[in-house]
Amino acid sequence: MADQTLDAKGLNCPLPILRAKKALQTLAPGGTLEVLATDPGSVKDFQAFCRTTGNELVESSTEGNVYRFILRRAG
Amino acid sequence: MAVATDTARPASKSMSIIVTKGTLDWAYPPFILSTTAAAMGLDVTMFFTFYGLPLLLRNLDLHLSPLGNPAMKMPLAGMHMGMPNLASMIPGVDAAATTMMRNMMKKKGIASIQDLRALALESGVRMIACQMTMDLFEYTLKDMIEGPELGGAATYIEVATQSDINLFI
Predict the structure, then answer these.
(1) Residue-range domain boundaries for chain A
(2) In a domain, B46, yes or no
(3) Using CB atoms, which residue from B9, B110, B119 is nearest to A54?
(4) Distance of alpha carbon B17 from alpha carbon B163, whole angstroms
């Protein structure tokens, strides 16, 4: 289980990333954030976001039309 | 060396954007890119000039016009409909196109410009209002939201020389 879950379903670019960034800031370093999104663009965007920021993309999966990401805050 | 940032990267990158357009559609690219770059740890500066300047007004009143924009094709009943220039002359057509765009954006979960602008300020995006444009169109800082500072071409160029990415939108 992730430390926190962010429901970004129905939100379009760049809101899932912006909301995720905000949520990550509330976590302790090493804490994990689960993000649920329906924006297909978010798959590539979360990869790029994590590569650039040093946060870790622990998991990226799809269930139906919902994309699920687990991010670990850099620390 | 320990760097106490949440990005754990040694030096942050930076980006500047010259914002020159103030229609409902063209207001999006600069604010989407600035908020996202800030979220990715970049230092961002936006320079608002000419028709981009009104994007800093307290009361945003954004519109769009299909006039002279053959690429604007709205989804309609499973098709995509462009609008001949002549139609844009008819009173109410631009307003209808603006309403249609707003409704589409809301339905698709796209943030409002007001929200993106607030998020940009909140995440530390530096905003510079072009002094010359302020004089030209007779605006004062009192007309603007809290946050922007005044500056001119040299102010921007100094920022640009220190930025990794410089965009003109």
Answers:
(1) 4-68
(2) yes
(3) B9
(4) 10
CA torsion, ordered B46, B47, B52, B55, to nearest 10 deg: 50
Answer yes or no: are the C-beta atoms of B163 and B140 closer than 8 Å: no
Is B112 in the A-facing interface, judged by CB distances under 8 Å? no
Give the nearest partner residue to B8 out of A20, A24, A74, using CB atoms. Answer: A74
| Surface of B (32-71) touching A: CB under 8 A | 32, 35-36, 39-41
Q: What is the pLDDT of residue B6?
A: 52
Q: What are phi and psi of A8, to 5 degrees?
A: -110, 20
Which string of b and e fits A5-26 if b means at least 16 CB within 10 Å? Answer: ebebeebbbbbbbbbbbebbee
Q: What is the CATH number of the domain that holds B125?
A: 3.40.1260.10
Q: What is the dihedral of CA A28, A31, A36, A42, to 10 degrees?
A: 80
**Tens digit of each residue's pLDDT (9 = 90 or more) over B118-154:** 999 999 999 999 999 999 999 999 999 999 999 999 9
pTM: predicted TM-score of the whole model, two decimal places: 0.90
CA distance to partner chain A, nearest, from residue B152 (Å): 30
Contact B12, B41 (CB under 8 A): yes
Instruction: Give the domain A4-68 fold.
Output: Translation Initiation Factor IF3 (3.30.110)
- Tell me whether residues A73 and B9 touch, CB distance under 8 A: no
Domain count, chain B: 1
Partners of A41 on chain B (C-beta within 8 Å) are none
- Residues of A annotated as catalytic (active site), given as ranges: 13
